[in-house]
Amino acid sequence: MPESPEVQALVDELESTLRGRTVAAVDVVEFRVSKTRSRPLTTLVGERVLGVTRHGKLLAIDFDGSEMLVVSLGRHGWARWGAGEADAASGADSVRADAEPPPPTLVSLEFDDDTVLELTDAGGWVSLGCWVVDEVNEVAAIAKHGPDPADPAFGREDFDRVAAGRRKQLKAILQEQESLAGIGNAYSDEILFAARLSPVVHAAALDDDELARLFEATTRTIRDAIAARRGVPIDRLKEAKVAAMQVHGRTREPCPGGCGGEIRDFTFASTTAQYCPECQTGGEVLPLKAEEPGG
């Protein structure tokens, strides 16, 4: 699932490439992607791009006709340039023979200089979503967003307001977009490892030093990842993210913290997560299926 560091890098590339360009054509291959049926994506034809912004894990393309295209990448969505732009960016000969087949294009936007932006979805069900709106807060997911840890103005008081004292597991709070915008499964694993905290402990059980550690790990992990992804071509962002992970996706590998333990799996809210028992749970191995209480 794309998370804020990769979405920010995508937004930066779209901004530098599309600003000032006018939409010449829109092709909607999968009608379920369009979430505003009364305002179809084809109404964007003739509109000029003013800018591109990130809102948690979503992005918005702002047009001069006051309309905005908001895109939720969902679990398996992403973006790529059409063949000409992609070849120019990474070289047509760079595709490996053993590479996975590219995900299908569900929406394409062609611009007045022949640039083509394709929105894709690699999942077995459609998770990509697009809205044509006047304001980003018309999209319910954005209207409900909590503060973004990537925001330089986000501080300890903001963090305590959404986390301190809650009878809810730390991993659930980190991934809850209404609490903290932009964090998903992978970066919540990385944050909790950096803070050396159990993913299933309740926030209410943390003392002030532990809360401070979690706040520092949250902001540092997300902000450092955004800085590290800056300038990475959008077709290489997934690879860069995977390579940077300390524990997420590292099942059975030695703990990078040097404790002598190994990374373990547990299932959380229908996804698989990773942690180090020695560093995070006092040696306790979590059950493969952990319950997620409310809070």
UniProtKB/TrEMBL annotation:
Which positions fall inside the Formamidopyrimidine-DNA glycosylase catalytic domain? Answer: 2-126
The biological process GO terms on file are:
base-excision repair
Question: Start and end of every FPG-type domain?
Answer: 246-281
Does the keyword field hold Zinc-finger? yes
Instruction: Please name the GO terms that the record assigns under molecular function.
Output: 8-oxo-7,8-dihydroguanine DNA N-glycosylase activity; damaged DNA binding; DNA-(apurinic or apyrimidinic site) endonuclease activity; lyase activity; zinc ion binding
Q: Which Pfam families match?
A: Fapy_DNA_glyco, H2TH
The record's listing under Gene3D superfamilies reads: 1.10.8.50, MutM-like, N-terminal
Top-level taxonomic group: Bacteria
Name of protein? Fpg/Nei family DNA glycosylase
User: Which organism was this protein described from?
Assistant: Agromyces kandeliae
